[in-house]
Amino acid sequence: MVRENTLTVNDLIYPMFVTEGKAQKVEITSMPGCYRYSLDLLLKEIAEVFELGINAIALFPVIPENKKDDTGTQSYNPDGLIQQTVKAIKQAIPEIVVITDVALDPFTSHGHDGLVDENGTILNDPTVEVLVKMALSQAAAGADFVAPSDMMDGRIGAIRQALDAEGYINVGILAYSAKYASAYYGPFRDALDSAPKFGDKKTYQMDAANAKEALKEIELDIAEGADIIMVKPALAYLDIICRVKSATNLPVAAYNVSGEYAMIKAAAQMGWIDEKQVILESLTSMKRAGADLILTYFAKEVALMLM
Ligand code: PBG
């Protein structure tokens, strides 16, 4: 009766991995229970999770090495993997909210989220131009939200302007506004084979030691036209979620990332923790901190638990 926060299936966004080919369902070693699906099986899985009450999915493409290049040209191919996938999902289940990732790392041979010069420096503004093309191709395919996860400066404004100019006025932007340069992304990079081949992402993602900078980043994204603000990772950054929530009236999302998932799965497999209770406690803590939405690889399991 006096409980202040309740986790519900409406809070959940399910991140899913799509790969080329047919009849593929390959488990990700460092993310037990998560799979790379080919489109045919992905559609079946989405139908199942939609049935369970999950209203939104976030898609990530697994691009084969021979289709990656230095500038990520496959990212805006109108017939690319992600674009075809979005079209097929919206045809099969038009009601499900489809969120697409806007960043170059699945598509670049070097694994960075942006274009790099010969010294390995990230080129912010030229990258934003490619991100705009990518977002437009996803909107054309039918994405409901585009979600820039790249952390380039100025990309939210540029994408909003381009979407509006092309008539995609109802496509929303879920901005990865406060995204930290985190070691918790390790298993996700295994899933996509997208670990950076040189350097790290610390020139564009945030320093774990900073909190005020997160507020500056969200302020910029809000001014540029973001519809939902995200903090990522979640568990080690609950204070950031809390501060961000009190700094904005926009919905706040938290990304319960791959490393957070892997830690719980590993400890549970060893029999060292009560998996179900730890999952529910972790996700509830994100709601308590202020998250309105949670991207989590536990979404399907939690939907089943909450039934
Ligand atoms: C990259 C991207 C990453 C994640 C989502 N989009 C990894 C990175 O920034 O290197 C991580 C998600 C997770 O760990 O679950 N644009």
UniProtKB/TrEMBL annotation:
SMART domains: ALAD. Mg(2+) binds at residue 217. InterPro entries: ALAD, ALAD_AS, Aldolase_TIM. Its EC number is 4.2.1.24. One of its GO terms (biological process) is protoporphyrinogen IX biosynthetic process. Pathway: Porphyrin-containing compound metabolism; protoporphyrin-IX biosynthesis; coproporphyrinogen-III from 5-aminolevulinate: step 1/4. It comes from the Bacteria. GO terms for molecular function: porphobilinogen synthase activity; zinc ion binding. GO terms for cellular component: cytosol. Keywords: Heme biosynthesis, Lyase, Magnesium, Metal-binding, Porphyrin biosynthesis. The keyword Transmembrane does not apply. Pfam families: ALAD (PF00490). It catalyses: 2 5-aminolevulinate = porphobilinogen + 2 H2O + H(+). The keyword Chaperone does not apply. The active site is at residues 179, 232. Belongs to the ALAD family. Homooctamer. Catalyzes an early step in the biosynthesis of tetrapyrroles. Binds two molecules of 5-aminolevulinate per subunit, each at a distinct site, and catalyzes their condensation to form porphobilinogen. This is Delta-aminolevulinic acid dehydratase. It comes from Nostoc sphaeroides CCNUC1.
